[in-house]
Design a protein that fits this description.
This protein is an all-beta fold and 325 residues long. The chain has one domain (11-322): Methylamine Dehydrogenase, Chain H (7 Propeller), CATH 2.130.10. The protein contains no helices and 29 strands. The strands form seven sheets. Strands 1-26-25-24-23 form a five-stranded mixed beta sheet, with no helix packed on it. Strands 2-29-28-27 form a four-stranded antiparallel beta sheet, with no helix packed on it. Strands 3-4-5-6 form a four-stranded antiparallel beta sheet, with no helix packed on it. Its main location: nucleus. It comes from Crocodylus porosus (Saltwater crocodile). Keywords: Cell cycle, Cell division, Centromere, Chromosome, Chromosome partition, Kinetochore, Mitosis, mRNA transport, Nuclear pore complex, Nucleus, Protein transport, Repeat, Translocation, Transport, WD repeat.
């Protein structure tokens, strides 16, 4: 399964704007297609995708734009709500963004007349990540450079507030662990908070800085992955220090995301170098990356809900790579 060659994307979609962030919805929309959202300098665009790997009648990627949401400011992160449904009447699209003006915006649309958004104000510096509670989606957690993690209700009221020791870079909520929140900090620490008692209950140490991104494995609640410095690191949460780590990106690693279909599959991206940004797909049983993808510029990283397929944003494009299980 060793593959040395750099692979160009299997599929691409042309976009209205430079793509800073791209997110497949991790939730079942009620329809066969997958929801995807991307954020640019001024807009969020929501669309659906269908791939040949899941439907023999599709020749290439089938992409359909559903709606463009005017945002007016650069989009830094997007989180999908589990309340999003395409098969309801009328359909409901709900997602939240973090923007360069340090505010969260909660968008709700029926893809027809109803298009609302609420602004959540509170962070005093850049917001790096956000996530909806994965079961009911009635609360949102966000982390930022202001050394805080905040939990909000859908009206924008703060329900909980955690003071961090350095900038918060990632926040994760696992569907099987509804009362625990994972928060990763730039100083290399990953903490788990009990939302009932609002206390830290567990911490993991990377032993290196800066930690830029971390993720909680959907398929195995014991597994946490991150990138710090040039390395990827993987923990079993029963042990404080990483069980495995490897240097992968010469220019420093930027993002880490677990596949949603295989607990051994994950992807990392590097900071854009002189020419291009690298996407690496890794399998924890293999010493070398199993796929190297290159995009002219790359930002964002997201995995499909049911396929071993990931996407990265770029200059007016989204790039998709498919890998073997």
């Amino acid at each position: 399964m060793k593959q040395d060659s750099v692979r160009s994307a299997a599929y691409t979609v042309d976009c209205e704007d430079y793509v800073h962030v791209v997110e497949f919805s991790p939730f079942d929309s009620g329809e066969a297609c997958s929801l995807i959202a991307y954020g640019g300098n001024n807009y969020v665009v929501v669309g659906t995708c269908r791939f040949p790997e899941e439907d023999a009648e599709v020749e290439r990627i089938q992409y359909k734009m559903l709606r463009t949401f005017h945002h007016g400011v650069r989009v830094d992160a997007i989180a999908w709500s589990p309340e999003t449904r395409l098969n309801s009447l009328p359909p409901q699209i709900r997602f939240c963004t973090a923007a360069a003006d340090r505010k969260l915006r909660l968008f709700t649309s029926d893809l027809q007349e109803k298009n609302e958004y609420k602004i959540f104000d509170g962070h005093s510096d850049y917001i790096n990540d956000l996530v909806f509670a994965p079961k009911e989606g009635q609360v949102i957690a966000s982390v930022g450079d202001d050394h805080t993690c905040r939990v909000w209700d859908l009206e924008g009221n703060q329900k909980a507030y955690f003071v961090l020791r350095s900038p918060g870079v990632s926040v994760c909520w696992h569907p099987e662990e509804a009362f625990k929140l994972m928060v990763a900090e730039k100083n290399g620490t990953i903490r788990f908070y009990d939302l009932t008692t609002q206390q830290a209950i567990l911490s993991l140490e990377s032993g290196q800085m800066p930690l830029m991104s971390a993720d909680w494995c959907l398929k195995n609640t014991f597994r946490i992955g991150a990138v710090a410095g040039n390395d990827w690191l993987i923990w079993d949460i029963r042990s404080r220090y990483p069980q495995d780590k490897r240097p992968v990106h010469a220019d420093r690693a930027k993002l880490f995301r677990w596949s949603r279909v295989n607990e051994n599959l994950f992807a990392t991206t590097g900071y854009p170098g002189k020419m291009s940004s690298q996407l690496l797909v890794h399998h924890s049983g293999h010493p070398q990356p199993i796929l190297i993808g290159s995009a002219a510029v790359g930002s964002g990283l997201t995995w499909h809900r049911t396929l071993p397929l990931c996407a990265v944003g770029g200059d007016h494009k989204i790039f998709f790579w498919i890998t073997e299980m």
